[in-house]
Write a structure and sequence with these properties.
By secondary structure, this protein is mainly α. Helices cover 53% and strands 0% of the residues. The chain is globular.
Length: 64
């Protein structure tokens, strides 16, 4: 039994800022809330790790 996994794309429907967390949630089949929470936690130690990771994903992941 083969399941078709969707391509990793930034979401246009489930987005708050750039659609990164929504796209990750759709790709992994879990709520985008958990990715948003992870990015907020990554912003706590000064902001740099979370912002850099988010911007890097924005550049790498294509839009829908």
């Amino acid at each position: 039994m083969s399941t078709v996994r969707p391509f990793l794309r930034r979401s246009r429907r489930n987005r708050i800022f750039l659609g990164i967390c929504g796209g990750l949630g759709e790709f992994f089949g879990i709520s985008a809330f958990w990715f948003r929470l992870a990015f907020i936690i990554a912003l706590l130690p000064g902001g740099i790790p979370g912002i850099l990771l988010y911007l890097l994903l924005w550049i790498i992941i294509p839009s829908e």
